[in-house]
Design brief:
Blueprint lengths: L8 E7 L5 H16 L4 E7 L10 H9 L16 H4 L2 E4 L2 H6 L8 E3 L12 H24 L5
Parallel strand pairs: 1-2, 1-3, 3-4
Helix pairs in contact: 1-2, 1-5, 2-5
Length: 152
């Protein structure tokens, strides 16, 4: 039987359509976890207003790739209320997303980097700026999770 400390932590990155910010955050966080040698963390993403099965936006795929993350296989999924009981932490891209997760206790929600603006419809430079903001925010998140003893 697994001890509580040995169980896999579940982290879900949340944005609106699950085709730009949250898939970039998921992919970039996987890269960061690997770089740091961290195990025992499963991450995924979802969208408050997502349709199931949409591909990540091409500029999101390209911007993530520039920072070492491959999100070409990503397919969007909508947030479902049952995720609240299955997830240890929701990392929201804006305060609005956190509010919309009304069924999730506040202690299970954080806002990445004070909020990450949506690049949807923007040019490649907007996606690069977004990806850089996400990557910087993930570094801060990683350190916070270590302090909370959610990761090693």
């Amino acid at each position: 039987m697994k001890r509580k400390a040995d169980r896999v932590r579940q982290i879900v990155f949340v944005c609106t359509g699950n085709t730009c910010r949250s898939p970039m955050a998921e992919g970039l966080f996987r890269v960061l976890l690997k770089k740091k040698g961290t195990r025992g963390v499963a991450c995924s993403s979802a969208g408050i207003g997502a349709f199931a099965g949409d591909e990540a936006q091409p500029n999101a795929v390209a911007a993530a790739a520039e920072l070492g993350a491959d999100i070409t296989a990503h397919r969007s999924r909508p947030y479902r209320p049952e995720m609240a009981g299955e997830t240890d932490l929701f990392v929201c891209m804006t305060p609005v997303h956190a509010v919309m997760l009304a069924d999730v206790p506040d202690e299970k929600k954080v806002i990445l980097a004070g909020g990450v603006p949506d690049p949807y419809g923007g040019d490649m430079e907007e996606y690069r700026v977004c990806a850089q903001k996400i990557a910087s925010g993930l570094e801060v998140l990683f350190e916070e999770l270590k302090k909370r003893k959610m990761i090693d």
